[in-house]
Queue: 4 jobs
Job 1
Amino acid sequence: MIERILFIFQKEVKIFFHTFMAPLVFGGTAFLNALFVLISNFNERATHEEATIITFISFMSTIIIAMAIVSMNSLVEEKNKGTMELLYTVPITDLEIVLGKFLFGSFVCFLVTFGINSFFPIILYSYWKAPLYLVVSGSIGVFFLGIFTYSVGMFGSSLGKNQVISLLISVLIVMTLWVLGFFSHLFEAKTRAILFHLHIFSHFIGFSKGVIPLTGVIFFLSGTFTFLYLTVKVLESRRWLG
């Protein structure tokens, strides 16, 4: 099983770094991050701690964009090129396909989070004076959010007929979970508690403030496993339907 998962992982890595996707994701993320860092750090009214918190909140947006773009090709491209049927002819399960592609997404998310994102507080440390505990907790939060977004994107890619539709599905799910909490006050107590628990921002904000909240870790990991499970079930249904 591990060999087949690694086979899928290596195939995805090779494709990713031999196309325009790698420079688009890494270069685009670095460019957007640079803009956010400059804006937050050249605001004279913001302290170094406030600037760090604001910067990692902005990283929340860039990691969602990056992982949504990476994930939109994860399964729909296989279906459009006919390579999904080829994978079905070899002794490999839907779970192994999903895990192999998710391992690739986690690898890209790791590079973005601890390579590109962490590069900014390090290189600007002489001016920024970024508190180390904020950098560590913020980076962990960005990584959890990134793999969660990728799992949502894989689910969208398993449903969509093309890249645009798969991207729209994943963006719609993420944005819905992002804005739910802002409208939770309009509902009764029980409904408000449920909506607030599904609010992505409320779980991420703790990481950006130097805390690693257990509820946030559980939310992102359970959400990731849920969407991976749903993706496997979609593939299984399509395999049996032909």
Job 2
Amino acid sequence: MSSTNGTQILKYVYALIAELWCSPPEEEEKREGNKKNAEEVVKKLESIDKEGAMMLSSFLAENDISEEDYVDLFELNPLCPLYLGAHTYDEPKTCAGAGVSDRNEYMIDLVGIYKHFGRKPDLTELPDYFPLMINFLSLTTESKDDPVRDKLIEEYILPFLPPMRSRLERLKTPYLHLLDALERVISIEQKMQPLSKQREQKVEDHVG
């Protein structure tokens, strides 16, 4: 398998994972179409990583969530917010506090990263909306040698996943399999193209 083919597969997989975190469609026909597409992507992933494909398959096999249950889980007064920073940073008590909060700085940094790649984030969602962040990984997969993308993964995604994992474990939801699959796919990408010393220096220079 060439690195180009592997990159294209990861692009599809990230896009699928991002879509699966979103609210499932109400129409049965669309659900079936999405399921068929998901199965095709899983087959592609299996060609480069059987374990990651099994994780995604486990989620697809167990996930038959209704729109009502999805809303209870992730929306309105959610049991597990789909905003990554919300699991780490406390909500500010005042409007003034929101402007100087750690989560606000986190989101400002994310916007800067999105703009670095010439992409404006979806203004209907906050920058740390989890499906948006994963979809951004799909959109930038071919830029995987860019140190800013490394920074996004290493500093703005991976360190923020454990609190979300803890919440999903307590809720005993199949979405834990989907988080497992995401972490696995990120590790696959990192193994396909580990940071070279030169790229590590570029990251340090960019941060500095």
Job 3
Amino acid sequence: MNTIKPNPKIDVPGVTGYLLWLRQDLPAVYAHVIRAFPQVAAFDAALKKELASRGLGFSWSSIGSALSGAASSVGSVLGSVGSYVATNTPAILTTGAGLYGMVAKQQMLNSQLMLAQSGQYPMQTGIMQSSGNQPYLTGISPTGAYPSTYSPYSSGGFASGILSSTIMGVPSWIFLVAIAGGGFLLLRRR
């Protein structure tokens, strides 16, 4: 049975929440983004200054407003940051095996970017063990600290992101249909 270990929720919406999620759940990728985008480096400097002034026992939501100014400069390059993250996130960190894993990784990253662009909270993610005992990061439906009006199935949510995302210019639903069809054919041959 697959089990999932949830990562802490990032209860800050928009660009700030996306950057905090990236820092928490994909720290190696975040480090590369800092080097590639001066706007993200400025955000990270503001974040470190804010963390140093708060000490222990703070919540992300309590510092979110203090970081909104630094995050606003990232908003102008957020699409580029999202593309950079999608191309530079190692597959082992975010996927199971094979084509399904590639599609799942791309959908999760696209959904997180779309949520940030629409000013929503980042989707909570967690670490799941694959059947081959390989850990990978996956999306979890948001609950708790998120507003009750948020739904992963609403416009701009995770499920709508699945249908509207693309992989190398091809709609991801085509890959999903191909995977399902291939699986059906394999089962039929047995």
Job 4
Amino acid sequence: MPWLVSIFLLLAGLSAARADIRIEESRYANGKLIVAGVTSPGRAVTLDGKFETQSDGVGNFAFQVEYKPASCMSDIRAGEEVYSAVIAGCLDTGDVDGPLPKETVGEH
């Protein structure tokens, strides 16, 4: 009987591991937000609670929407799992407060 409990725990652990979200691309270009990744097959996936898609038979999903998140970060949700992704190429030149520090090599 203890072996049955061990098998159940092993299977439960495998199911939890498969539910993770892995982001393979997250960028903003030409007025579009592009986010692509992998989760469990056949899951509803949402982007910032505004856009929804379904992962395919092997778990791949992708968004390509005309949207720019104000914080240049997006939350991707699949079931109970949430992944916060930094969006490459999202910041505009004017988004940085003040000039960048000058390199001070050799100064103390």
